[in-house]
């Protein structure tokens, strides 16, 4: 920790908070994933889709989504005393893009959730993290009733950089969500190590 | 603070809120209209950890407003992130940042900045995170 604003005590300098973003299209399961792995009830502001909202939010193929997240939602995982992971679900609608820059500041990495029925919905998120060189994994949320694709097919369809992990997951399932996060942290570690080596050679 | 909602529906430009929205107050009223903290430097990150300053006097003196006191109380037991404080106090993050700036100046809390991204992936810590996730 860098005591930027005030004198830090020893206690404080030992405390470490890491940030992981959860991005993806509207209704893809971001809030669900955060809720599945968080030890606290996900904190968020939700609002019923109003008539005004419906003209903006495209819910085609997302029959059961009744509410939409209009602010960021977040969860926490305490690894040990003084080491916590914070998960932030990024707002799905384009009109909240301005929040992304702040959220991605200093992030360890990101999970891009994808729905194979509307794969193009995650293009903006993939684009965003590629441009900002934030390590990310693509997690394909396997909705019931959606056709299953192999991770390799998704990798090709999204034209991802080689090595970008694609994981099939069930956003409602805690173990599945944990696996996604583990893959992300492993991958982020590899990316950062490679950059470190690049910078010295 | 509370507004009379009775006439709200009749005005065409005010249909975005109704009785269910509850009393409305402009968010920056509690900061006296200030929109950025008095402290210098980068704004507090969402995951910056706020710690109640050890030995700080009780939160019940006149220099602090009720929202200030609420923030001090919320982080008394254990350090809280800025995001958690905003939710706990039910205030917008921007407002919480201003109030925290006041509290830092008054010496009531300390705010620590998250690790810059370039220094993040200490291999030992990432391994700890992975093992911690597996053990959950």
Describe what you observe in this structure:
The complex is a heterodimer of chains A (201) and B (136). Helix content of chain A is 33%, strand content 23%. Chain A is α/β, with parallel strands linked by helices and 201 residues long. Chain A has a single domain (10-200), classed as P-loop containing nucleotide triphosphate hydrolases (Rossmann fold), CATH 3.40.50. In chain A, the strands form two sheets. A six-stranded mixed sheet of chain A has the order 4-5-1-6-7-8, with helices on both faces. A two-stranded antiparallel sheet of chain A has the order 2-3. In chain A, α2 crosses α7 (174-200). Chain B is mostly helical. Chain B has a domain at 27-115: Orthogonal Bundle (Arc Repressor Mutant, subunit A). In chain B, 32% of the residues lie in helices and 7% in strands. Chain B has a three-stranded antiparallel sheet with strand order 2-1-3. At the A-B interface, α1, β1, β4, β5 and α7 of A face α2, β3 and α4 of B.
What are the defining features of this structure?
heterodimer, A: 201 residues, alpha/beta, Rossmann fold, two-stranded antiparallel sheet, 7 helices, 8 strands, B: 136 residues, mainly alpha, Arc Repressor Mutant, subunit A, three-stranded antiparallel β-sheet, globular, disordered N terminus
